[in-house]
Amino acid sequence: MLNLERLRVLHAVAVHGSVAGAAAALHVTPSGVSQQLAKLERESGHRLLEPHGRTVRLTHAGRTLAGYAARVVAEAAGAESDLADLSAEIIGPLRLGGVGSSLRALLPDVLAELTRAHPRLVPTLVDGEAVGMVPLLARGDLDLLLVESWANRPLALPAGLATRTLAVEDVHLALGEGHPLADRECVDLGDLDGQVWATCPAGTEPYEALVQALRAVGREPEIRYTVTEFATQLALVARDLAVALFPEMGQSPAPPGVRFVPVRPRMRREVLAAWRAPGLAGRRPSPLPAARDGGARRLPRPTASPAVRACVEALSRVEWSSPSAL
Amino acid sequence: MLNLERLRVLHAVAVHGSVAGAAAALHVTPSGVSQQLAKLERESGHRLLEPHGRTVRLTHAGRTLAGYAARVVAEAAGAESDLADLSAEIIGPLRLGGVGSSLRALLPDVLAELTRAHPRLVPTLVDGEAVGMVPLLARGDLDLLLVESWANRPLALPAGLATRTLAVEDVHLALGEGHPLADRECVDLGDLDGQVWATCPAGTEPYEALVQALRAVGREPEIRYTVTEFATQLALVARDLAVALFPEMGQSPAPPGVRFVPVRPRMRREVLAAWRAPGLAGRRPSPLPAARDGGARRLPRPTASPAVRACVEALSRVEWSSPSAL
DNA sequence: CTGTACCCGGTAGCTCCGCTTCACGGTCAC
DNA sequence: GTGACCGTGAAGCGGAGCTACCGGGTACAG
Predict the structure, then answer these.
(1) Which of B2, B70, B65 is nearest to A305 (CA)?
(2) Which candidate among A263, A303, B128, B235 keeps its CA 20 to 30 Å from the CA of B35?
(3) Which residues of B51-86 are buried (b: 16+ CB within 10 A; e: fewer)?
(4) For B38-80, how does the pLDDT look when each residue is reduced to its tens digit (9 = 90+)?
(5) Nearest nucleotide (C1') to alpha carbon of A30
(6) In sequence order, what DSSP letters do the residues of A46-102 get, joined into one string?
């Protein structure tokens, strides 16, 4: 394995054109540089320098290696620059997770705005189901998670996570235009016996919320279609193959032939942002300071990263509050 | 300045997810890894790890830095890979120089072929005049140089350079179609008194070759137009503003209205590839071995790089020998 | 041609860095 | 509860890397 420090020495020689110049730049003696280069030659198995007058020049192998060295040094300089700005600037990786339809309605605009304002921010995104994503967030594999929580079945989050409500919206019943209930102003859930339902896969929040809402009025939904994509569900509804529950964020774009009707009792869905709250981490608030904070010269405990805070702020600013939710 | 070795430690922790795993991968004890990370935290000024159960996870600063570390390690691995293949494969930078029209006729095809066959070869190209480029080659700022040498004025190259002839071609006189000599089968240089000449800038090979060729028959050319681009010279010739000497490589594409006529005495031009010949370097073949070869454990003296040899071979294969030169 | 200044490479010696060993507190699983 | 595992810290040792110095060689001025 190559010694990375020695690559820095080689790069200095390539830049300054001489051992003496490199030594001056690195604040060491020429002898030290020469020794490092000799070792680099031995461990790389190639001559890197050849005498040229009273100075040296790089061989082909030396130039090849110096090219890598230049990139390594540039990476190191970039890292230092990022570290210097890390406390103040919005920088570095931001690992986002999303669940369900909240992704499409909220994230693209916010990510566009964030990356425009903070070019050194590197967001990544994974979507999935709440049951799988929440543990990822708690374990530290995600920085920020967008989840949905249905009012009749509030999402349970483990301790140590902070949340903010990004949107509250009504849930409507989607019907085909030819459906007998399509012209109602409002539909009672109790009137929905015998309907065929489409919803998201079993285990997801919309599925469980649908089942619980109907059981609350003494009905058991006949769920015949479970598909992840709202667009597919709407296509089924448009052909009168099923009815479905839709939060407002999922209603556009809708294909022709679909009607959305409020339901009674009123159903609401929230979209939440969740992240680890450093202050409350751990099962119990341990009375002793954590081990890594013991030493006097230790650095302070990390707080929520500026990147997470900035993203939550940007998401909050979107104000996707349903007009009918007022 | 960040310690590059410590970045490798951080990367190992990021990959293996624990101090113990990183320690095993690096073949050191967990304590050693922990100490290196603590130093990295101190010198970076940020917490990089935080406790998480009985293991650790990276903070935002840690992930940011680990991203750089991953790239640094990847560069180092790439460098090692290139070094391992350097003796056998065509790899690394190839700094080409070109003089005059030889560039356009020969290089593009050869470079396309070379980079297709050897994707890890990184050619660069600079063009200029022989008077400036030859010292660059001798000094080691170029690996390979394409130069032209006119038979009546052979190019003088310093010792230590090897050459290969890539093409030999006749030089013709370019005339406008309406020129009185345009219908001749052959033009005697001695008949060209009083002509207005276009050629390359003073000091270049074509300029000096023109002057010497005419002086050899007792004439002094009236050079009124000196422009670098052959296309511009041809445009002047096409409008009967001047006559010019053109090697065959410079004759296409020619604008309408230009005739090319052989000259007497016959003029020839060669295109040469020149590179440093390691065996003959230095002014005199020094009787003692060079200083850098002294040590017994020293590596062998570098020979011409495979990249240079491959490029010379590819250039030789082009076989741009003039049909009329046979 | 000669003297001088400079550059590179090698050697001896010293300093400091980094690793290992050992020990301890905390966490998780049985 | 208890044992296994993880991460961290202190002490000590070995080696890596630096400096100081010297010698060989080159470029440049006179």
Answers:
(1) B65
(2) A303
(3) ebeeebbbbbbbbbbbbbbbbbbebbeebbebbeeb
(4) 999 988 888 899 888 888 889 899 999 999 999 999 999 999 8
(5) C8
(6) S--EEEETTEEEE-HHHHHHHHHHHHHHHHHHHHHHHHHHTTTS--EEEEEEEETTH
pLDDT at B197: 94
* pLDDT tens, position by position, B128-162: 888 788 888 887 788 899 988 887 777 878 777 88
Region for A240 from its dihedrals, namely left if φ exceeds 0, alpha if ψ lies in -120 to 50, beta otherwise: left
Q: Give the residue among B48, B76, B64, B72 at the shortest CA–CA distance from A75.
A: B72
Q: Is A68 in contact with B73 (CB distance < 8 Å)?
A: no
Residues 6+ apart with CB under 8 A from B254: B174, B234, B260
- Cα–Cα distance measured from residue A172 to residue A262, given in angstroms and rounded to the nearest whole number: 5
Give the three-class secondary structure for B15.
helix
pLDDT at site A139? 78
Report the candidate in A249, A200, A245, A317 with the shortest Cα–Cα distance to residue A102.
A249
- For residues A263 and A173, the answer to whether their CB atoms sit within 8 Å is yes
Which of A1, A4, A89, A137 should we substitute to test contact with B (largest number of B Cβ atoms within 10 Å)?
A: A4
Q: Which residues, other chains included, contact A216 with Cβ-Cβ below 8 Å and sequence gap of 6+?
A: A152, A189, A265
Residue of A nearest to B5 (CA): A4
Q: Mean pLDDT in chain A?
A: 83
Contact between A47 and B300 using a beta-carbon 8 Å cutoff: yes
CB A62 within 8 A of CB B92: no
Report pLDDT for A89: 81
* Beta-carbon count within 10 A of A126 CB: 14
Residues of chain A in contact with residue B290, where contact means CB-CB under 8 angstroms, are 51
| Residues β-bridged to residue A123 | A94
Q: What is the pLDDT of residue B104?
A: 74
Rounded mean pLDDT of B183-210?
90
First CA to last CA distance, chain B:
64
What's the rounded Cα separation, in Å, for the pair B317 and B315? 5
Number of neighbours of residue B103 by Cβ within 10 angstroms: 17
Closest CA to B275 of B133, B149, B151, B154: B133
CA–CA min distance A39, chain B (Å):
11
Residue ranges and CATH numbers for the domains of chain B are: 4-84 (1.10.10.10), 86-279+303-326 (3.40.190.290)
Please tell me the predicted confidence (pLDDT) of residue B223. 92
Residue A39: helix, strand or coil by DSSP?
Answer: helix
